[in-house]
Each structure stands twice: as structure tokens, then as C-alpha cells.
Amino acid sequence: MFPNTHFKNAKKYWYMNKLYDWSEGILHPMIHALHYGTSTFEGIRAYPTSRGAAIFRLKEHIDRFFHSAEVIRMKVPFTKEEVIEACRLIIRENDLKSAYIRPLLFYSYGNLGLVPKFSPPELLVAAWEWGAYLGEKSNQGVNACIVPKRRIHNSQMDLSAKLGGVYVQSMINGTLARDLGYDEAIFLNLEGRVAEGPGENICVIKDGVLHTNDRSESILEGITRTSLLEIASHLGYKTRVAPIKKEDLLQADEAFFCGTAVEVTSIVKVADFSENPDKGPEYILGDGRPGPIATRIAEEYRKVVTGQNPHFEKWLTHVKD
After folding, report:
1. 238 strand-pairing partners
2. In whole angstroms, what is the distance from residue 223 CA to residue 162 CA?
3. By three-state DSSP, how is residue 32 classified?
4. Assigned CATH class of 136-305
């Protein structure tokens, strides 16, 4: 039996076109993905609107999901339309008003050689209520640290795909940040510039300009990041996509993490352990509180995802017809 203690209001999950009770375990311990991280996944959120729950940018997430499957040499055993409907179905079956949705495609049981010749890809979709990813402190801004280890480089892996095994590096360094007393980690890339967080993109604001980086900087170009660039422009802010030097972050007027799980969370203090892993000097960003531009963008993002901005209604997939 598996309790849903850390998966609020999760009652059922969808596995290979069938619904199962959340407490029911059906996977063999020798599945290929468990041993080698041979999986791909998406993180998607649904929000309450006046028309019931709606999923934010579901089509774009599923497009990337299928792209990731190609990168890891997996054939998805369902069509895009069927996966989209499974995401909608699992929200309805769990009677969720808001939710985090996790489609997971993985090499399953068959053989345990590195090449999964006899391990077919199988698909699971789950959903549950999930609040602020970095905790309730997120409203006041979070403290982050630049970790000593550099982000895996885009010359080593196709980072446009969300692959399970790649997130081992994220787990190790996210845990390190918390052990050091910070809320989240920040990676530099091999070139020494700012890459991203363990599961978030980074934006900095200087002199009123919203500045983020792109895939050449060894990041996953997040769907939330792309959405915020468009939202910021809609609000009249100037935006810039270019490499972010470490000094750009440490001297920023404002900065924030963005992503499906973290949404828009301001960074108010950064410690730099990149040159001295034992002692990192700390830098306060702005006045040490979420700044006015990041706050306004976060407020507008909340309006967009909850269906309060008709201009961006195109990004919502309503759960009920």
C-alpha cells in the first residue's frame, strides 16, 4: 500500500490506458528506468478558472514530451491527442480544482542491459494538488546559492529534452543547497556564465529590462520562461534573451526563478560558492524583497493561468468540455 501523504488529494493514476487506485503498486523492481534513469517526463499545472480547472499550455508540454521521447529513442505508445485526454481525464477522476500533472514515459520491464532491447516504453499520468514548490517562504523571496559543480553542457546532452537521468545532477545540488542553508541552487555552465536552477530557469532585471538566456547556455528553455517573455512584452517591459554573466545576476535589481513547479519566485539573496566551495560571499539583490517588476509579472501570470486575461485564453485547455 502506498499512502498519498505527500500527494494531496491524489486518488487515482492513469497507467497504459487504465485507471488504478493511488495506493495500488503495479511496477516490477527490475524495470529498466529504475536502474538507469531511462525516462522522460513533463511537469504541467492546472488552475481553477470560472469554467472549472484548466491546464496551462498543455499542447506545448505534450509536444515537448514527444520530442523528448525521440531524443531518448522511445516510441510513445499513444497519440498526442490520447495523452492530452489522459491529462484531462486524471484531473476529472481525482476531482481536482488545481493540480500538478506528471506524464512519465519510461523503459519498463524486459531486460537490464544498458540497451533496452526487450523493455517496452510504457506511459503513466498522475495528478495531485501541489502548492508552492519552494515553500510558503516563496512569497517573501528565496535565498539561493551558486553551487561549485557546473551544469551538464549542451555539447554533452540534448538539453531540449526532459530526461529522467539528467535530473540526478539536479537532485544532488538541490540537496547540497539546502544542506548549506539555502532554498535552492543555481548552476553556472562550463563557460562560467549563469545557466539555470535544478528545475527552473532564471531571469534577471536591470534598469527595467527583463533578461534571460537561451539553449546555448546549457538550459532547458522552459515553457513558463517562454510564456513570461510574452507576458512581459504584453505589459510593456523590454525583454532580452542573451547570456547572463555571473555579475549580471549578483548586481541585478531583481531576479527570479520560473518554471511550472516554481511558477514565478523572486530571488532576494545569492551566495557564490563557485570559486570557494567552503565559503560563499553573499549578495543581497535589490532591497532584499521581491521587486516591483517581478511582482507585477507574477501577478499577471496568475491572472493568465486562471483565465482572467482573455488575450492569453489560447494557452488554456479546459478539463471539462
Report:
1. 209
2. 12
3. helix
4. alpha beta
Q: CATH 3.30.470.10 region(s) of the chain? A: 12-128
Beta carbons within 10 angstroms of residue 117's beta carbon: 10
Instruction: Give the Cα separation of 128 and 102 in Å (integer).
Output: 9
Of the candidates 74, 96, 72, 79, the residue with the CA atom closest to the CA atom of residue 7 = 96
Q: Scanning the structure block, which residue is given the C-alpha cell 510574452?
A: 230
Please state, in angstroms and rounded to a whole number, the distance separating the CA atoms of residues 313 and 321: 15
pTM of the complete model beyond 0.90: yes
3-class secondary structure, 283 = strand
Q: How far apart are CA 1 and CA 16, in angstroms?
A: 20
279 classed as catalytic = no
Output the pLDDT for position 238. Answer: 98
Domain limits, CATH 3.20.10.10, in the chain: 136-305
> What is the band of 106 on the pLDDT scale with cuts at 50, 70, 90?
very high
pLDDT at 138: 83
Asked if 254 and 291 count as a contact pair (C-beta separation under 8 A), the reply is: yes
Of 122, 125, 68, 81, the C-alpha closest to 100 is: 125
The residue ranges of DSSP E strands in the chain, in sequence order, are 12-15, 18-21, 39-41, 44-49, 52-56, 99-107, 121-128, 142-146, 184-186, 201-206, 209-212, 238-241, 254-259, 263-272, 282-284, 316-318
Residue pair 4/22 in contact by the 8 Å Cβ criterion: yes
The residue annotated as part of the active site, out of 162, 245, 269, 303, is: 162
According to DSSP, residue 65 is labeled H
- Amino acid identity for residue 214 in this structure: D
Rounding to the nearest 10 degrees, give the CA dihedral for residues 35, 129, 294, 274.
-20
pLDDT tens digits, 275-296: 999 888 999 999 999 999 999 9
- Give me the CATH topology for the region 12-128: D-amino Acid Aminotransferase; Chain A, domain 1 (3.30.470)
Cβ contacts of 302 within 8 Å, gap of 6 or more: none
Opening angle at CA 195, ends 180 and 273, nearest 5: 30
- Compute the average pLDDT of residues 203-225: 98
